[in-house]
Amino acid sequence: MKRFSPVIRNLTRKPGRTTALILLTAFLALSVFAGTLVVSSLRRGLGSMENRLGADIIVVPAEAESKSSLKNMLLQGTIGTFYMDASALDKVKETEGVQKASAQIFLSSMKADCCSVKVQIIGFDPENDFVVQPWIAESLNRPLGDMEIVVGSRVGTDVGDNFRIYDRKCLVAAKLAPTGTGLDTAVYCNMNTIHTLLQAAEEKGVSHKIDSGNDVEVVSAIYVKTVPGADIGLVNNRLNGKIRKATSVRTTGMITEVSDSLGGVSRTVAILIAAVWILALAILFIAFSMMVNERRRELAVYRLVGMSRKMLSGMILKETALCSLAGALCGVLLGAVLVFPFTTLIETSLKLPYLAPSAGTTAVFAVLAIAVTVAAGCAASLHTASKLSRVDPGSTLREGA
Q: What is the pLDDT of residues 74-91, one digit of tens each?
């Protein structure tokens, strides 16, 4: 600390100049940390969505696209209910090129006295499911019983609580890890439970009947896994031609669309960060250049009292390093305050999957942002430090006499 005492005295003697340098470097650190955090969260969200989909094709009623976009349901948790005859599942399984097929039934709860909160309820068949079950197995190591539910990470309830849906009490058996998609706001249950809830919804006046009037044997979506090596596009065409009043959608198409959007956002963020850095570095160079004239007489005095050029350069670099470190710490803290409380808002605004990195990865990003900012600040002052160290003390003091 004694080694830094003259440096700290110099910095505190000019609080305006020191504050300006800290603010500039804080701006640099903020842009790097917050930008990296947002881009990383978007990429993590896309990876999570790819892992969770687990199917090559999704078959839904033809009306589904008009009632609620499948992509919006997955990414933003848009609540949607649509049904088709359950016999479509057998037709899908009989289609050439289909290895596995598993049905799901959707039901939206009402934000009213009958329900704890408004959520998307998804019923699945644990014996045949290959989409939800592997994910649930990470949180629940036993079969999901009747009137038991598994909730997404953003549903406001805990394991062991009773969750009321259409006046039916459901026990929360597990809570899933976050995915950064709309699946985080969904509730999952087995087929017996979803049929009980469908009946309860009917009693509340919420109709889910299909054209045939069959209100029991319905499904909302059929997830399809094709035979390894099969032409997915060809299987998709076969399903579109075979299942009446339904449409089949390739999941890779949705993921590619999201990936393209993500690429656009990433490029925009990278351009903004680059622009901020160029602007801030230019201002830093100008600020240090202005310091040359401002401190010529002061540094000339240091040289006259015996300070070597190397010591003079070292003192300036230490001043810059301390300012940059203080600014970088402030910038990283401000970035955390601006990004973490608003993850839901960012996800909703960008309409892309968003999954924040782990605490360890975030800490690494913070350290890198601090290191890069301090290095940039020191690099910007190197030329100035070298120029100041070559100041001739005698001529400088005579100029100012």
A: 555 555 678 888 888 999
Contact 29, 328 (CB under 8 A): yes
Written as one letter, the residue type at 21 is L
d(CA 267, CA 270): 5
Q: How far is CA 59 from CA 20, 65, 98, 306, in A?
A: 59, 11, 12, 83
Taking the alpha carbons of 237, 239, 241, 246 in that order, is the dihedral positive or negative?
A: negative
* Tens digits of residue pLDDT in 129-154: 888 887 788 788 888 889 999 998 88
Least-confidence region, from 72-76, 213-217, 306-310, 348-352: 72-76
Nearest-angstrom CA–CA distance, 62 and 81: 12
Tokens representing 10 are: 């110099």
Q: How far apart are CA 47 and CA 72, in angstroms?
A: 17
Element (H, E) at 192: helix 191-203
Q: Three-state DSSP class for 298?
A: helix
